[in-house]
Amino acid sequence: MKEIKWLAKEDSWANIIGLFLVLGISAFWFFDGFSIIQALNVKFGSWRGTDIMDAFKNLSFLNFVILFCFFGIWFSIVSRFLNKKFKPFIVSFSILFILSILVFLISSHSQAKEFQLESPLVALLLGLVLGNFANLPQWFKDSLLTEFYVKIGIVLMGATLPLTLLINAGGIAILQACIITIVTFWTIYFAATKLFKLDSSFGATLGAGGSICGVSAAIVIGNAAKAKQEHISLAISIVVLWAVVMVILLPLFCKALGLDAGVAGAWIGTSEFADSAGLAAAQSIGDERAIAAFTLIKVIGRDMFVGIWAVLVAFLSVAVWHKQENTRVSIGIIWERFPKFILGFLIASVLVSLFTLNLDSASSQQFSKETLGLIKTLRNWVFTWTFLCIGLNTQFKKIIAVGYKPFVAFTLGVAVNLPLGYLLSSYIFEEFWTNFMR
């Protein structure tokens, strides 16, 4: 029974699929069978004007069939354990796959590159247009597993960050994340409960969404605080709105200020509200250092605290906000609420570090170029599905209907978070992030 319960969670399957890819691709490389799995390396070429066929010059129809079947089979298995109806789910994924091809086609055009329209941003914009101007059926929306896709992508990202980097940079990332998380949470909570007299549980839910890991934190902390379901939904809507705004604004600010890629990634990691949106913003910088810095701050630094915050908030809910007799907060809730995909991220990092431990310089470079190159390509596909899902699920009508009090309370947190994140990244820890991964 425990196994079934464990396999009914998105985090478990994100770890299984992500680590399967890391182990499988690495094994093929070590046993000289890498050419067999090259069919999964679906990357579009650059094209100009109307020469669209240039985008497919190194690809065949079979490449797309193999890639679709590979993920389609995995996701079909997952859908059964997550209680998703198979037919709607596979149809939904098929539509998502076709849309992602369109996204890569647009982003690989020379003009898109000139305006720095990377695939994540294109996917988000395309999703927003379809989500708000097309009448999408509910079965399609119910089959869009945004959080699941981003978790797979984060596990794959672990493979591209060596364990030594996590050890050397993790301390600074966690310290910076702690400062931003604590200040942002209590700013939003104070504004919500003291200035606007909102319910304490609602204030905690808003604060968690703005300070920890966005939608996931709003759900976890909202339930721990015994917030009303409509309050959790409102918090999610506000988080999504600001996450979308920051996807566009943060890269523009970073480039206008001429920030180093490491500094830019750290600022995005402290000031974005959702993993998927933050990855899109970091990727828009166009430097792997920005993605790595963002990941350390957001995933290792902020996301991992969701379990600890859940215990704190659950205790406050029981002892202060909703006093209940004979109710105790178990420390086991930390493990229950802890985002397990972070463990997959760390395991992937450890595995790749072990694989390259005894390789000479030339072999290590070849491993990075081929194995990690393929992992990054698959990661880009998964993240593109994530950004499409975010756009398709974002309804501006619902967000506008939220009401001004919770929105303003959250926005006050943004007003504190954004300059504080810049101060921490560009001044206090500037030397560290400037030399990061150099």
Automatic annotation (TrEMBL):
The chain crosses the membrane at residues 12-31, 61-82, 89-107, 119-136, 148-167, 204-225, 231-253, 304-321, 341-359, 408-429. Keywords: Cell membrane, Membrane, Transmembrane, Transmembrane helix. It is found in: Cell membrane. The keyword Membrane applies. It is a multi-pass membrane protein. InterPro entries: UPF0324_pro (IPR018383). GO terms for cellular component: plasma membrane. Its main location: membrane. Belongs to the UPF0324 family. This is Putative sulfate exporter family transporter.
